[in-house]
Each structure stands twice: as structure tokens, then as C-alpha cells.
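User: Second chain of the day. Same drill as before.
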Amino acid sequence: MQRFDVAVIGAGIIGLATAMALLRPKRLGVVVLEAEDRLAAHQSGHNSGVIHAGLYYRPGSLKARLCIEGRDALYRFCAERGVPHDRCGKVIVAADEHDLPGLARLIERGRANGLGGLRSLSADELRQYEPHAAGVAGLFVPDTGIVDFIAVTAAIADVVRERGGDILTSTRVERVHPQANEFLLETSQGEISCRSLINCAGLQADRVARMCGLEPNCRIIPFRGEYCELAPERAALVRNLLYPVPDPRLPFVGVHFTRRITGGVEAGPTAVLTFNRHGYRRWNLSSADAIEMLCYPGLWRMAGRYWRTGLSELWRSMSRQAFTRALQRLVPELTTADLRPARSGVRAQAVDPNGRLVDDFRIMQAERMIHVLNAPSPAATSAIAIGRFIAEMALSE
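Assistant: Same format as last time:
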């Protein structure tokens, strides 16, 4: 049996950033356990690659604080470790007069969160940044950037190993047995003992919490996000990052355009309920996931609140023309022929029993355990700050 001081479940960017932070102040025996055969297999490797500035989040929330701290820490880390990145800024577009109050709220929220350099744009100024964009006004956010989060995750893993940490892939945690002064973990590769346990399992975080004997009071509901990419000859329609004014009722920012650090421009994503926590393809279905979701009252209450939005997202997923129309609010010249199918990702969205989408990061502490139960976007941006936050909680105990 292998014995460690701390076992971190999940080798996505948050799990590895937590291990990196734990190994900094003192020499601990830290192991990161990953069920898949590679790092960043799910949310960390299937996101938009955007380094978020911290504009959208409620002032004083954990999201707002850790996003801004994490953004600055991420830029420093990428510079120090030679990870390609670009602080390119982004433009948010008010497509018509109805978007202007929402744009004003974003500016107010951004200033409350301490963002500097925000610039309001007239319709003419908007086209100086994005010549093909259409709108009555805009906002330039200079601290937004782009990066490959798979490369960031790999660089963080290098630091973990340099500091003496272990990373075990293809090691699925199957059972957790709390004992007097330790936890006994049954994994697909044998037994592991640890004094403390940190759950960064992402799409499986609520299940791991229940495996540990806790009731997280929420359920992970997966949403698939589908992307298209602009044909290479049409990529010049978008210079950098181009976003709509988001719906304030939802934790999603709407379909948008993103220039990738590896080249090309993506458009999307949709946000479609999927009955498979790893449902990257449209018709992927897990009977176990589906039954669990359909038996959860929170799913039905959520559906009662957002069914119209859900149908709209489903229609955009099924109809390329509907998807194109949503993007044409930002770039009218775009046509369906300009789009190519691209990748998809699955967002782990926590939903409480009343059907409310958990908006803030949710981190639950119990005796010798910490569970990250809700960490969707901007979690990748915030990962280094989240890791430090969790490490401080763990080390203080």
C-alpha cells in the first residue's frame, strides 16, 4: 500500500494547481489521482482557452476574487514557464438598444471588481476594434487573453513533479473508507492511504463527495457546449475575441467568437443538457447518468424555470442556420457556409434541489476533507488562485 499525506482526486487544472500549492510551503507526500489515462481529459482540456478578466462575476463573490487573483497569477506563470499566451483583450457588443442596460451593468460590475482600462465604445469605435462587428455600442476589456489550458496544465504538472509530488493516471478511485486518522482509498490500481483528501473531480465531484459519506446538497448536471470554427479564408472576420451582452439570469455568456492561441477562430458554444457526464458527441447517452438525473427533483425544477432557454439552445445545436443567426447578431457578414463543425466540451454545472444553477464556486470542507463541488468557468483562469485557497484551508487544518 502506498501512503501519502494528501491525496488529490482529479488531475485537471484545479487538482494539479492545488497539489502545486500544497507542495510549496513544506515537503508533504502529495499524490494526484486521475481516472483517465491523461491529464486535463475533460473540462480543463475542452474549454474555450480564454483567460477571463473578471468582468461578469458578482462583486465580493468567490468567483470575482479568485478570477482576478488567478488571472494575474496565470499570466505570471505562463511568462515564467514559457507557455504561449496573448493578452489580446476582448470586445463585448451591444447588438441593439435592448442590450444597452446590460452593457452598463457589466461596466459597473467590472469597475466594482477592480478591472482597469475598461473602455466604452461608440458604434464607430467598436468597428475600429472589430471592423466586421455590428452594434450600437461596445466595451473593450483589455485584461482578457487566450492560452492553451492543456499546455498550462502540463506545465503545472511539471512543477508538481519537480517539487516531489506524484501523479498517477489510469487510477480511478472506486471506494473511500474513512478511518481513525486516515482514509483508505480503493483504486483501480490498488489501495492508497492518505491523511487528508481533496476532491477536485469536476464532472464526478458530487459522486466522490457522496462516496466519502457527505451530502453535497447539489447535483452535477452536465451541459454540452458545441463549437464551430470559421473557414480559414473567413477568419479575418474576427480579429480577437467578440462577445455578446450575456443574459444575467444564466451563468453562460452566450455564443461568441474566440481566436485560439494555436490558430484559427472558433464560434460557440451552445449549452445543451446532456444525459452523459462525458457526452462529447450529440447522441452519447449514459443510462446510469440519465436515470440519476431524471430522478433528481432539482433537474425538473430547473427545467420549469429555463425550458424556453433550453429549447432555444437545443434548436441552435440542431440547426446550423439557427446557430448562424445567433452569430450574425455580432457579425452580419457571416454565412452558414463560413462555419465548420469543431470540437465540443461538457460543463459540470451544479444544480441545487430547488433547481437553481449554483452561480459561485462552491467548496465544501469537512474533517480532513475538502470538496470542490462547483467550479465551472472561470475556473481554468482562476485555477492557481483556487489551488492556493484550497491549500490554505487544508494546511490550516
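The chain has a mean pLDDT of 95.

User: Great, on to the next one.
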